Amino acid sequence: MSAGVGIADTDTALKLAVFHTIFNVLGVAIMLPLLRRLIAFLEKTIAQPAEDLSKPKFLSEAVDEFPQTIEIAMRREVKHLYDNAVELIVHGLNLHRHELFEAKDIAAMVEASRTQVEFDIDERYEARIKTLYAAIVEFATRVGAKDLPEDVVDEIYNMRDVSDRVVRAVKAVKHLRRNATQYTEKPQGVITDLYNVLRTQIARILVEIGKLDLTDPEDRSSLWLDQERVQVESDAQAPTARSRH
Q: How many domains does the chain have?
């Protein structure tokens, strides 16, 4: 083949390059038809390790060595905490996350959701919130002790405070859940309506935060955020008025 393309018999370097090219092309040609079978075999043979949602995904001492990644890692970890919290909050309201984020009429969905979601909220809190929050606070404390620009440290502390609010929201739902379940499993007049209003308001806020998360950062203008806030308040007043009526 080398002679066919004009490579001299004594040019061993080019002849070796031809050999490697042929070898690689043959390897691709042989493996390509078998690729799906190989993937299926590997997925069946090698078990996918279960994801441990209680441990931080993005925070480590290695991140500390690169100041430009500290904010990114912290932001992602707080988002991880929030994602864990949303599951507990939604289930604590006796709702299902996939139904909530697909619902066209949240108030109607909440009113129809009367069955308690069976899960141990205290156990989930210990497993998915408490340990992760402790890691976030520890990371923020460690970063604060470093010689970093003031704006970076302030942003880290702001995100730590956000995670604190997330944790407090979960704790609030833990206390709310018992009464909400007691008074919404069966219609009991005004008190049932009031608890459904409260569940609806919380659910709407979670949905709006979800929309915000899916929105391109460039589109998150102050005006857009104000419009979303007004929409949440307007939606919240509608079920309240209906309950009073």
A: 2
Place of tokens 């929050």: 133
Q: Is 9 helix (H, G, I), strand (E, B) or coil?
A: coil
Reported pTM? 0.68
What whole-number percentage of the chain has pLDDT above 90? Answer: 18
Question: What span, in angstroms and rounded, lies between the C-alpha atoms of 85 and 102?
Answer: 19
Using the Cα atoms of residue 238, residue 242, residue 244 and residue 245 in order, give the sign of their dihedral. positive
In this structure, the answer to whether residues 35 and 130 fall within a common structural domain is no
Helix (H) / strand (E) containing 209: helix 190-214
The answer to whether the beta carbons of residues 59 and 135 sit under 8 Å apart is yes
Q: Is residue 206 part of a domain?
A: yes
Give the structural domain span for 74: 61-244
Phi, psi at 213, each rounded to 5°: -65, -30
Two tokens at 135? 């890691």
Instruction: Give the tokens for residue 103.
Output: 């619902």
Go through the chain and tell me how many residues it has. 245
